[in-house]
């Protein structure tokens, strides 16, 4: 899998064109122009929107500015979800650019986590990596890596450096050939209309009889509603 | 997050979704609305007198952390860190039911808590 460089690069370099507009509720000293930005699908909103914040702070008084938060059509955007997931979940059927509204007050405490600094994003990202490795390798690979290797993983994401990131991530994507796959597949299924944030369960990539299982097998077992009776795909 | 001064007994009455766990477990785990959580202290964190709790699946890590903080009568300024598998800190909005499904063993989810980052 780590040999499929073209696919890995396409995933890494996926971008979503976005247009950021200041909420009319905000108090400004003069009119705020919208700000356009290409967002990396694999990154996090708070990691890539410093320029957005700087742009709008220029037209605002310091006393009117609290923690910036983003919203799409009334829904606060959870910065701790990858950008690609947020877009696919909320706006994939709408025309580009993705129109995001920027706020600097009335932080929605019940919907969003605070993000005081990049170290908060780093801690969240590393926890996700560790949780995934707990499922893939009982955590053995991530625990055997040194602190500087963890740092390189994070810096690769932060600085959009594919080679730097994958030099470390390839270790996390390997498994013994005799096993045929990871211990469990780390996955999450997000739904637009659901009372729960996502579906996450244990799923072995190889059947008890030794057959390699596919994404379709996973969905059939854990989310059959995604697959029509005719064998097609439901738009969700 | 709102942090009111409450006595421990009050928090139990206010939190019907968190109860002392029964010692015997019967029935398929999928059908049970609650899962068993075992809380273990790390470092200088106070040890809970009751360690085993029955928690509703939909309860979040953050609300469980708030419950533990109130139960231990921690200061509002004191943080609480929760870890799974002594290795990663789940997101505050993560449901304990999902953690139990993926990381539970022997019918319970073991969570370590401490006042400073242990496995950051």
What do these coordinates show?
Chain A: Belongs to the ATG5 family. Chain A: One of its GO terms (molecular function) is Atg8-family ligase activity. The complex is a heterodimer of chains A (236) and B (120). Chain A has 236 residues and is of the alpha+beta class. Chain A has three domains: 13-103, Ubiquitin-like (UB roll) (Roll), CATH 3.10.20; 118-174, Autophagy protein Apg5, helix rich domain (Serum Albumin, Chain A, Domain 1, Orthogonal Bundle); 189-226, no CATH class. Helix content of chain A is 36%, strand content 13%. Chain A is built from nine helices and seven strands; from the N terminus they run αββααββαβααααββα. Chain A has helices spanning 5-12, 45-48, 50-57, 83-90, 118-137, 140-144, 147-158, 162-172, 215-222; strands at 15-22, 35-40, 69-72, 75-76, 98-103, 189-190, 198-199. In chain A, the strands form two sheets. A five-stranded mixed beta sheet of chain A has the order 2-1-5-3-4. Chain A has a two-stranded antiparallel sheet with strand order 6-7. In chain A, a hairpin with a 7-residue loop joins β6 (189-190) and β7 (198-199). In chain A, α7 (147-158) crosses α8. Chain B has a domain at 34-114: Phosphatidylinositol 3-kinase Catalytic Subunit, Chain A, domain 1 (Ubiquitin-like (UB roll)), CATH 3.10.20. Helix content of chain B is 22%, strand content 22%. Chain B has a five-stranded mixed beta sheet. Chain B has 120 residues and is α+β, with helices and mostly antiparallel strands. Chain B has three helices and five strands, in the order αβββαβαβ. Chains A and B meet through α5 of A and α3 of B.
């Amino acid at each position: 899998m780590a040999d499929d460089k073209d696919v890995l690069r396409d995933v890494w370099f996926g971008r979503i064109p976005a247009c950021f507009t200041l909420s009319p509720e905000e108090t400004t000293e003069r009119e705020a122009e919208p700000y356009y930005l290409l967002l990396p699908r694999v990154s996090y909103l708070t990691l890539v929107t410093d320029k957005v914040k700087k742009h709008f702070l220029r037209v605002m008084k310091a006393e009117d500015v609290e923690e910036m938060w983003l919203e799409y059509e009334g829904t606060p955007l959870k910065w701790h979800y990858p950008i690609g997931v947020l877009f696919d979940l909320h706006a994939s059927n709408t025309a580009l650019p993705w129109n995001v509204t920027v706020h600097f007050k009335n932080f929605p405490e019940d919907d969003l986590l605070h993000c005081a600094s990049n170290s908060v994003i780093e801690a969240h990202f590393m926890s996700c990596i560790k949780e995934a490795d707990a499922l893939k390798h009982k955590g053995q690979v991530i625990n055997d890596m040194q602190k500087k290797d963890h740092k390189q993983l994070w810096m690769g994401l932060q600085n959009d450096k594919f080679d730097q990131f994958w030099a470390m991530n390839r270790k996390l994507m390997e498994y013994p050939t005799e096993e045929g796959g990871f211990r469990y597949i780390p996955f999450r299924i997000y739904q637009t209309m659901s009372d729960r944030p996502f579906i996450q369960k244990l799923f072995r990539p190889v059947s008890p009889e030794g057959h390699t299982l596919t994404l379709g097998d996973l969905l059939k077992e854990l989310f059959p509603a995604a697959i029509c009776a005719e064998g097609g795909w439901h738009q969700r | 997050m709102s942090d009111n001064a409450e006595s421990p007994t009050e928090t139990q009455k206010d939190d019907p979704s968190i109860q002392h766990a029964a010692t015997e477990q019967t029935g398929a785990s999928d059908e049970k609305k609650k899962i068993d959580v075992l809380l273990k202290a790390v470092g200088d964190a106070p040890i809970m007198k009751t360690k085993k709790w029955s928690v509703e699946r939909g309860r979040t890590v953050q609300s469980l952390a708030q419950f533990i903080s109130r139960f231990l009568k921690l200061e509002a300024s004191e943080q609480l860190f929760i870890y799974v598998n002594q290795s990663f800190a789940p997101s505050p909005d993560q449901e304990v039911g999902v953690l139990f499904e993926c990381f539970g063993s022997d019918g319970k989810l073991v969570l370590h808590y401490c006042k400073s980052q242990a496995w950051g």
